Each structure stands twice: as structure tokens, then as C-alpha cells.
Amino acid sequence: MTNIDREKLKIVFMHVLLILGAISMVIPFIWMFVTSVKPSTEILSWPPSFIPKSPTLDSYRTVLREANFLRYFLNTLFISTISTLSILFTSSLSGFIFAKYRFLGRNIIFLILLSTAMIPIECYMVSLYILINKFGWINTYQGVVAPILVMSFGIFLIRQNIIMSIPDELLYAARIDGCSEWRIYTNIILPLTRPALGALAIFSYMNAWAFFIWPLIVINDRNLYTMELGLTMFQKRFTVDYGLICAGSTIAVLPILIIFLILRRNIIEGITLTGLKE
Questions:
Q1: CATH topology of domain 59-274
Q2: pLDDT digits over 234-264, tens only?
Q3: Contact at 8 Å (CB) between 245 and 231?
Q4: What is the pTM of this model?
């Protein structure tokens, strides 16, 4: 077997592995959707059937009508959007500062900031709740979104992207032409980091959309429930309504799937550019 044949065989083998991995990831979502359109008698039947015999949209009607799921959807959409916009602004501005400015303690401050990414919210949840309670933000949108307004990983991602893809000479030329620092940020940094910002938007939006433990603690009013909290209403003490849970989960996944399909190239390009050498 020649070297060319071996390379072709490796490529085929890698493609087969990737296809199998993709199928294994997609099957749970397909099963969730199929279960959401099954009547209750088919969901718990044995042996289970993949294709529904009598498909119905009753679960979706119940979720949207009786469970006030549309309100939960809008609450999650609002919280996720505010969180994403804040993270994009703070990450791009902080990443620009840490990448292109020289000041005392820059590396130490950045390392401290980066180390916070290793601390889960469960470690400081009690102290954060006490702080939010003193502000009077219990059962408010600002109380829910406060912990996810800044992302240390986002600052790291944008910083690396700026260091690797934007040379200092470009900024020097802009300053010579009379550009202010804010104009450099808006007219040079933001357009050139658009792929990385697109990838970060996906990460931050998914993180905010799936946020569960903190809203569970800080929200008692059902009118402020998010999608994740709303799904728990279908899990009772002794029974679980799988049809309603799958219908609600399908509705919850759709926005993330749409955003991913729109910005998928930005994710690949943003991650790739972050790893390039100057």
C-alpha cells in the first residue's frame, strides 16, 4: 500500500468517525422531537416505537396554552439577549485593553480574571444571593442576569484573537491619522474581531439560555420563570409528563439551533483565528 493510499484510508476513516459522532449527537434531539408529537399512550408503550403511529400536536398546545410557556420563552429570550450583549461589549473592550495596552500589573490582573473561570457559581452562590437581596433584586430581571453580564472566557477569547490577528502597526497608523482610542475600538477592533465575537455570542447565549440553578434560587414569581424553570413544572412528585417535557424542550432548543445555523461559520473562523500565530 502506497503512502497516497494510506492517506486516503485515513481520510475515509476520519470521515466515518465524524459521521458516527454526528449521528450519536443528533439522535437524542430527533428522539425528543418524535416523543413530543406522540400521544401519551405511545410514549410509554413497550417496545418503544421510533415513528409515531398517531402523531399529534396536543403537547405543544398544552405547553403554550396551559403552562404559560410563551411567557417563559420571552423571559428567557430577554435575559439571554441582555446577557449576550453585555458579554460582547465587556469582553471586546476588556480584551482590547489587555491585548494592546501596557500598564502596571496587567498580567497579574488578567491571570486573576482568568482564574475566575475555574470557580463555579455554586461556590459563591450564597454570598451572591445575600448581595442581590441587599440590592432588592430578588424576583427581578436584573437579579437573574447580574451573574452573567461578564464572562472571563470571553475576555480571554477576544484578547487572544486581537493579539494574533491585529498588528500593533495598524493601531499606530490609526493614531497618527488622528483616531481616538474609542474610534479605534469601534472602527478597527470590532470589525476585525467579528468572527470571534460571533463565536462568543453563541457561547454566551447558550450559557444564558440554559441557566438554571441561579434563577431557581432568585425567582419565586412564576411570571418571571425562564424556560428551564418552566420545564420543571411538568415533573411532578410521582409522575413525569414526558410528552410535555419533550415539547417544551423542543421549543427551548429551537432558538439556539437557529442562532447556531446562522453563526456557525463565525464559530469556526473565530476559533481558528484565535489559534493563529502572528
A1: MetI-like fold (1.10.3720)
A2: 666 556 667 777 887 888 788 777 777 776 6
A3: yes
A4: 0.77
